[in-house]
Structure formats: structure tokens, C-alpha cells
Write a structure and sequence with these properties.
The structure holds two protein chains of two kinds.
Chain A (H helix, E strand, L loop, with lengths): L3 H22 L4 H6 L1 H11 L15 E4 L5 H10 L41 H14 L6 E6 L6 H13 L4 E7 L2 E2 L2 E2 H5 L4 H7 L3 E5 L5 H14 L6 E6 L22 H10 L8
Parallel strand pairs in A: 1-2, 2-3, 3-7, 6-7
Antiparallel strand pairs in A: 4-5
Helix pairs in contact in A: 1-3, 1-4, 1-10, 3-4, 3-9, 5-6
Chain B lengths: L8 E3 H15 L3 E5 L3 H4 L2 H6 L4 E3 L4 H11 L5 E7 H4 L4 H10 L5 E5 L17 H6 L5 E3 L4 H10 L7 E4 L4 E3 L14 E4 L4 E5 L3 H14 L4 E5 L2 E3 L3 H11 L2 E8 L4 H12 L4 E6 L9 H7 L4 H13 L2
Parallel strand pairs in B: 2-3, 2-4, 4-5, 5-7, 6-7, 10-11, 10-13, 13-14
Antiparallel strand pairs in B: 1-8, 6-12, 9-11
Chain lengths: ~280, ~325
Amino acid sequence: MANIEELKSFATQVRRDIVRQVHKVSSGHPGGSLGCTEFFVALYQEIMDHDPSFNMDGVNEDLFFLSNGHISPVFYSVLARSGYFPVEELGTFRMIDSRLQGHPTTHEGLPGIRIASGSLGQGMSVALGAAQAKKLNKDSKLVYTLHGDGELQEGQNWEAIMYAGAKGVDNIISTVDVNGQQIDGSTDTVLNMGDLKAKFEAFGWDVLEIAEGNDIEKVIEGLNEAKEHTGKGKPVCVLMTTVMGNGVDFMMHTHEWHGKAPNDEQLESALAQNPETLGDY
Amino acid sequence: MKKYTYTEKQDTRSGFGAGLAELGKTNDKVVALCADLTPSLKMADFIEANPERFFQTGIAEANMMGMAAGLTIGGYIPYTGTFANFSTGRVYDQIRQSIAYSGKNVKICASHAGLTLGEDGATHQILEDIGLMKMLPGMTVINPCDYNQTKAATIAIAEHEGPVYLRFGRPKVPIFTPADQKFEIGKAIMLNEGTDVTIIATGHLVWEAIKAGEALEEKGISAEIINIHTIKPLDEEAIIKSVKKTGCVVSAEEHNFLGGLGESVSRTLAEHFPAPQEFVATKDTFGESGTPEQLMEKYGLNAEAIVAASEKVIKRK
């Protein structure tokens, strides 16, 4: 296992990358990105067996699908810093002719991206197809996904959740970012989804929880435990509680920074809270 | 004028089923998915021979389209099967984002297209699907005319890298294309050469166009008849060449005139060789219950309608 301090310092740099990307173009989604920083760092630096030289089919590799594509800043930063493409390219986020589109896409050929996402609720279905392809290929590696909690309001998720449970797709680990926030307010006030654990279990999933999704040790521990639960006839769900905007004090515990960029002063404050570790792009 | 005859009628969906079954034997990368309509899509032979390569998704088309996109990651060639309505309108955003924009090699196979679905009525008779699908960048749109051509198209699209919409239907229609005719995506087929009017038809309307050509000949009118099985990419060269000769065109399709083959022909001619055109198509309307024959007559989608449109367009030259 990688040194925890090194991973924390990696995460700090990713948080800098997130706010800098979004600030430069005055658009993008910092809140959810910051909340999932530890998850992405854990996944790409510790959990997954993956190859940054990137091949679309990813046979004999673990695969990851981001369903809530709007948190592209964290995805791009971690992919770049894991060797998928030059970190300098983070400076082109959302700009004309960039491979780093507002929402992730295969269309511009950015290494590390296997499906377009942005229109919500589609990622799990795609991941299930990829998981079934792995079974056909006798490939024992796993498929990971990430979903927003608010995103689960999209009905297609429940088609996919029903399929995975009914058909025993047990080579998938789907993590839900439970931050309790969405654009119009808290998930409870916008459309209360009730007991997600009970819902997934009722659909035949094995459900684990990571109560502290912004503690990288806990995230690694939780995902490693989830791995142990694969291959036992049930899909695995991880309900991961995070704080939206984590690591930037004025962005935390609110939906206000779901899709809003910091101004110059706010950027300065955010960067001061997250000192440079691996070197800015 | 070449005479076309037939000894047997068969549904185009059975051509799809036969093509899929053959692919099951010849291409181990082909997988199939269905949302609870395997008998209607004639998928039984493939499923029986290749149970591990078949995915029953239940009545959940959105998930089926997403899964199909995912199955391409790992090298498979997924064929999805459901009615045309549920293959397009119901899942447009899934196709747009997860398949077309993502550039996935998915074959969307759609049965019961158009009015000839018959008695089930307008909820199931999609007349907008060609338009929806041809508007998606990178999507190939194919509407074969009989059993043999549908079988050949089903097999041919496996060799084409990229998303394809394959549209076919429910009624039994004459089999008149040769069983050994190679299916070339995007290549128009000249059925009869003529000089007075070009009739460009797709799908079930191709046989009607052939009958119309015979009726027109009896009236002393020489019709050139072209089978456009691929609406996108359109064989523009064949269309322009023919209309330069005849000076006018009738397009014929079992689809709304908004967004269909006819509009693709119009755009081509507007850009290269403007000419009078008449549209044999539904005119911005939903369908209704009835037998296929009754519906095709009521909505003006048969040989008689093509003859009338031809006579009208010739006068406009």
C-alpha cells in the first residue's frame, strides 16, 4: 500500500487542480469534485489495476466509469496525474479545441475515458455491459462506477440496479457519493430517496458503507472490503458519505458550489488552504 | 423494363432473425440483447445456439442501450432488439450520449417500424424514427426492403465499425431481391432504368415502387426506380445522376415526410440539382389501428399513390 501521507498530499494537489481548472474558465463543478477527491485518488493510486497507456477495451484491467460526469475536474486531474495525459493539458479544461470537454467524452480521444457522461443516470448500464463483456472474455478484473446520490433520481439507474441484482453481476462495485446535495437544495427536500441501503438490498445488492468518504484511509479500507465481496453472486454497492466542497472551507456543506466557479479572491483562499505538493500544471 | 416477380412473401423481421442466427455461427464477437420481445424479433435461433451471448434485459430499454454500449468495451458487437418505437424515441438520449457521441459499435435493430405494425395503433407505429436517427452524427441508417435484403444487411453491418440503426417490419412482403445479393452500405440499387421520372423508395415501399413502375409503363411513362436501403450515408451520386436524366423525383417511404428519406433527397437536390419532388409519406400525422393494407391505402403509401405522385411531378417539370 502506498504511503498514506503521500496519497493525502496527492489529494491536496488534486484539490488545487480542481479549483484552478474551474476558476480559469469561470465554469464547471467544484463541489462534487472536491467531495470525491479522496475516492478518485484511492481508486487510481491504490485500488485499481489499470494501465495509463490506455486501451479502450481494457481487457485484464480494472475499469472505471464516471456516471455523474459533471465532476470532470477531479476525474481529469487524477487521470493526468496518474499518467494518462500531460498535466499541462488541465489548463485547457472547457476551452475551445480541448480534449477536456465540460463533461467527459470519448469523442476527442482523451485517454482514460471510455464513455461520455453528463446526461445523468446512464453510467451503471454501460458499466454492466462492460462487466458482462469481462465475463465473456474470462477476464477476472473488476468494473468500478461512481454515481451522485441525487443522480439516483434518474429512472434508468433502477433498471440497471434491478438487472444487476437479478442477473447476479458480481464483478461490479458501484459507489454512490452520498453528499446529500443537489442543484435545488438538499436531496431530502428536492426528492427524498429514503433508505438507499434498503433499496439496493431489496434489489439484490450487497451494500457496504464508507461513513467518512473524505478520509482516504477509510476510503481505501472500504473499497478493499468491497473487493472482497465481489465474485459472490451479488453486485456490490458502496454508499460513501462525503462532504460536498471538502477541503475548501467556504464551499463545504452546501449545494451552492455544485456548479459555480470561485472568483479571484476565493481562488486565492482555496489555494491557501491547499498548498502546492506535486507541482501546479 | 425489367420485370420483378416473387414466389414467396416473408416478413423482414424474419430476415433479421436469420441473419442474426448466421452471425451467431460465423462471428463470435456478436452478442444480442432484447427487452422482452424475442419472439417478435425472431431471435430464438440465435439465443438457442448462443445462450451465453444473449442478454435478456426485461422491459427496460434504456438499460439495454447502455449495456450494449458497455459490451463494445471488451470487443463485442452488440445487436439490440425491440420495436422501432422503443429502439429510438424511448431511448433517444441513451443512444445519443452512450452510443452515438461515445462512438460505440452498437447495432440498433428495430422491428415493427411504421404503419404496417397494424392493429396495435399509433402508440407503437413510429413514423419519426428515421429522422431521429439520421440526425445523430455518425449514425448509419438502413431500411431494407425484403427478407433477403434484411438478412444480408444484418450480416453486413457486423463488418461496419460504428453505430447502425437497422429498421424493418412486421408484415409479410414479397421476396424479390436475390438471396446472394451483396449488401453494400450506402450504395443505391438501380431496379429499373427510365427517363421520365425517378422514384426513390426505401423499405416496404420499394415493392410498391416496382408495381407503380409497371402501372406507369402501361400509361406510357418511363420510370427509373431506385432502392435506397441506406438513408444515411445517402448515395447522393446515384440520386443526382438519375434526376439529371429524368428531371423530377418521387420519394416513397413508410415514414413522416418531415425528417425522412424524402427530405434527405430534397437536401441533396437543393445543393446539387434542384428539381420538382413529390413525397409519398405520411404527412405530419400519427397512425391508427387497422390492417396494414388498409393503413397503407388510407395514408397514401402504396403503388397507386406513387403513380399519382409521379404523374403530378412530371407535370411540374
